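Memo subject: From amino acid sequence to discrete backbone structure tokens
Keywords: amino acid chain, backbone geometry, structure tokens, three-dimensional fold.
Body of memo: The sequence and its backbone structure tokens, given next.
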Amino acid sequence: MYTVEALKKYKYFKALTHFINLDYLLDPLTGLISRKYMIEFIHELIKENIPFTMAIMDLDNFKDINDNYGHSFGDIVLEQMGKAIINYLGENGVAGRFGGDEFIFIIFNKNDYDDIHGFYEGMYHSDVLRKNIAYEDTPVFITGTIGSAAFPDNATNYEELFLMSDKTLYRGKIKGRNCYIIYVHEKHKDLQIQKMVKDDEATIFYNIYQAFYNNQDFKSKFSEVEQYLKNIIRFDCMYYVDEKRDMYNFSDYKKIGENVSFDKAKFNNEIFKTNFRNDIEVIDDNLFKATKIHNISSMLVTRLKTNNKNYGYIMYAQERTSRIWQADEIATLFYLAKTLTIELI
């Protein structure tokens, strides 16, 4: 958590700590600056015309983390995230908790695009994001999405700066989360949140369609679709189990298993998903052997089915860590399954 000594280097906080207790200044769970004082601090920086970059960060799938592992574990995630952000920012900036799983922080002396790009790259390859936090004996993979804009390069007041950061944050979520977007006027000036949702869904489905119908052989179809979806959804790998129960990598159509069965899997509305290796072992020995080779512990599976005939299965898979699959990810898998089934009929 922040200390009085660490905050006194900033004029605003130095004045504030003369008449307000540190406990009122900080968020009690994360040890970051509370929302009210963080926003006031940013207004003060703008008033004094001090250049900085502002970032808004959401933890990905935090509601599902609470739902699946409990609010106590959610609090542990938030607490550890607060410590990690403080440590990473160091002397370069100040962070606050904006609310729920949303954080806001400012960075000094890194307004240049390349500098801030490198700064965020470091966040995603350090102890801040893309890391495991243990829940009992299960590692839970924690990721986040960042939207960012700079004062005064991109905006001259707080409202504009927040809007630009919020738009780029949402753009990052649309692109699949687990990424950062830095505001660039030429690319992002016309971003509209509602339009982004409609355009992105249409683009994903169109690109899946194009990949299947522009390639003649299955290997090329599968390879192009997997590469495209991995960039959007950011899973580790895809698999296809055909009607003969042979299991293939989507990327190179290489067979990795035989006589694989999902007969014991409990499908809910044509979807099976699990985050536990033991679930896979109970379903089928051959499936377990095939996925064990690649350390698969989390999977999202749907049937290739039409007119009550089963043509096999396709799945997204995650290695070694838990994954909470989202509604839009399920939707793309459904669409892919329907597209592939038409090919197989």
